[in-house]
Amino acid sequence: KQEVTQIPAALSVPEGENLVLNCSFTDSAIYNLQWFRQDPGKGLTSLLLIQSSQREQTSGRLNASLDKSSGRSTLYIAASQPGDSATYLCAADNAGNMLTFGGGTRLMVKP
Amino acid sequence: NAGVMQNPRHLVRRRGQEARLRCSPMKGHSHVYWYRQLPEEGLKFMVYLQKENIIDESGMPKERFSAEFPKEGPSILRIQQVVRGDSAAYFCASSPLGGTGARTDTQYFGPGTRLTVL
Fold it and tell me: Is B3 left (phi over 0), alpha (psi -120 to 50) or beta?
């Protein structure tokens, strides 16, 4: 059974800092690994999807890496802004039917 | 192209009543997934449906919960005789492909329905 863990659970940084969010998973037989953003009281917005055959994906100030052998993924946010404040979720896709989510990292970027 | 639509956005029910949550997938998507987010917990998979078929319901509680995705109309998640522990945010997602093999498509999530049981 896949288990996904995210560290840290919460993070507060001043504006402009580069930061790394961590995600680990127990079953490396994944189809892909996705990162989402969730704003309070809102739905999920897909940020990046890394296929199992890929090592990283980039979109703007975001870069996500995947190391299947060690069961880890990281989300790197460059030059953080207050608008980046949200909960970031990673999710592993094993069976092709469901996503297994981590508990999320609550990010606060202070002006 | 409208995104995944869910209604109602907020639903209040008293214990013992029925809750019906609706999800309209993105245009061209024939695969629907339901997830539940309990307070202070992560999202948990409930059920995966294609048109007129339940593909995987391994995350559904054994009693009181049911889901359908008819040939016409939205997918419905039905909770009978609700209890306070059912209070949560229920999210629907859709994708254009699904199931076995190397499916690699992103799931697109709706805004969720927040159910409160009094």
Answer: beta
Bridge partner list, A63: A58, A76
Determine the residue among B43, B44, B103, B105 to mutate to test chain A binding: the one whose Cβ has the most chain A Cβ atoms within 10 Å: B43
Task: Give the integer Cα–Cα distance in Å for B43 and A55.
Answer: 25
Give pLDDT tens digits for B21-50.
999 999 888 889 999 998 878 899 999 999
Q: Which of residues 56-95 of A touch B (CB under 8 A)?
A: 89, 91, 93, 95
Verify cis geometry, omega within 30 degrees of 0, for the bond prior to A14: no
Which two three-digit tokens encode residue B14? 């008293």
Taking residues A65-69, report their average pLDDT: 94
To which residue do tokens 């076995």 refer?
A: B100
Which residue among A34, A97, A101 sits closest to B106, beta carbon to beta carbon?
A: A34
Residue of A nearest to B31 (CA): A97
Beta strands in chain B (DSSP E): 5-7, 10-13, 19-24, 31-37, 43-50, 53-56, 65-68, 75-79, 88-95, 108-109, 113-117
